[in-house]
Specification:
Largest sheet: 7 strands, mixed
Order of helices and strands: EEHEHHEHEHEEEEHHHHHHHHH
Number of strands: 9
Strand order of the largest sheet: 1-2-9-6-5-3-4
Bound molecules: zinc ion
Number of helices: 14
Low-confidence stretches: none
């Protein structure tokens, strides 16, 4: 069986996987009792034929579908508010979340917020804030990813920027995991090489950080290491041969696997990506790709054994920490990813704000080593200057 063969999975949620399965959108809506969906996406997708493919599928089945495309590339609270208004104005009864991570995150937050009296930030993933949610008020969600990276279609959270504080906040509820997912790798064929590379590296960072996160979680570890094997085998092909459906399918699987595995935890790559993304509006996957080798080196003493296992599984020469580091560096180079944070506009003047903010990021708690302000200051400095030690 090839990696692009159509399959139905029920783990971690109901997933229709395979090229062309966007045609089953009306069935997915029907299974959740949705008759008047609001399709939430971003302006980029709204201009593409793949949106029309989704709308056409619903039209043929008589499913009246509204479209809300007011989602920024790093979604903000106002995007969620506007989506909630569109949902209520159109008397919709469910959400189709279609797009990359930003659109999926915004759509999931909109589906959460249509039934709440409290403001969005009351549900930030801190302590047991999620228990404040009126779960009965949440709208059902069909998720349709159009990139392979964030895995938000199988995640239980959304990352939304709070513009008042310039911070990325994680909004969490267990029921934010979409009940129906359509993974149609053909939808990603038109994705430009640079975006394919950046989101693919986001998927790698999810699998890698989950695999290295401390704690005993054999299920997450097993998923993460196989996710990385798929990326090792297929990411470059997906970038160089955009219409290669096997490579696109493998990357879509790896994306699902990263987000499933990172229930175990993420780490300092994501702490830095959240902080930089909130301040500089840089691409999330690209930031993770840039900081990846620096974070691996900073965590080396805690992850050397893990990376030896990974190197063996990937069949890298001379398996060990350096083998994985060299693999990451070579992959970044082959994908034309910049080597330093300076290339993304980060300067030493950002350190006094970025380092303390990274310490506070929720991903820091599951980094292999405890990082405080001093460790993050050093890490940001090294990544700005390009000094790998
Ligand atoms: Zn990520």
């Amino acid at each position: 069986m090839t990696v692009s063969a159509p399959r139905n999975w029920n783990y971690p949620t109901a997933i229709r996987f395979g090229p062309g399965r966007i045609k089953e959108l009306p069935q997915a809506c029907a299974e959740l009792g949705i008759t008047r969906p609001l399709l939430v996406t971003d302006p980029g997708i709204a201009a593409l034929p793949i949106l029309e493919a989704a709308l056409e599928a619903n039209r043929l089945s008589g499913v009246d579908t509204g479209v809300f495309s007011g989602v920024d590339s790093n979604p903000v609270g106002a995007n969620v508010d506007a989506g909630v208004s569109a949902y209520k104005d159109g008397t919709h009864d469910g959400v189709i979340a279609m797009g990359g991570g930003s659109a999926l995150d915004a759509a999931k937050a909109i589906a959460l917020m249509v039934g709440q009296d409290r403001p969005l930030w009351d549900f930030e993933d801190v302590g047991d804030n999620w228990s404040r949610v009126n779960a009965d008020g949440m709208a059902p969600v069909v998720a349709v990813p159009t990139t392979s990276g964030t895995g938000s279609e199988v995640g239980r959270a959304s990352v939304i920027t709070d513009v008042a504080t310039h911070t990325k906040k994680i909004i969490f509820h267990p029921k934010m995991l979409p009940e129906q997912v359509i993974c149609d790798p053909a939808l990603t064929i038109g994705l430009p090489p640079k975006i394919t590379a950046a989101v693919g590296m986001d998927a790698l960072s999810h699998n890698l950080e989950a695999f290295c996160a401390p704690g005993n979680h054999p299920m997450a570890d097993g998923i993460a290491i196989e996710g990385m094997r798929l990326i090792h085998t297929h990411l470059l092909t997906a970038v160089r041969e955009p219409a290669n459906i096997d490579a696109r399918s493998a990357m879509m699987s790896a994306s699902l696997m990263g987000a499933t595995a990172f229930q175990k935890g993420l780490g300092a790559m994501h702490s830095m990506a959240h902080v930089i993304g909130a301040q500089l509006n840089a691409h999330h996957g690209l930031i993770n790709a840039v900081v990846m080798p620096y974070v691996l080196c900073a965590n080396r003493s805690a992850i050397a054994d893990r990376l030896q296992d990974l190197a063996r599984y990937l069949d890298l020469p001379d398996p060990g920490f350096m083998a994985v580091l060299d693999w990451v560096l070579a992959l970044r180079q082959a994908l034309d990813i910049p080597h330093t944070l300076a290339d993304l506009g980060v300067t030493h003047a950002h350190l006094p704000t970025f380092a303390p903010a990274a310490v506070k990021d929720p991903s820091t708690g599951s980094n292999p080593l405890p990082f405080g302000v001093d460790e993050f200051s050093k890490l940001f400095s090294q990544a700005i200057d390009g000094s790998l030690t």
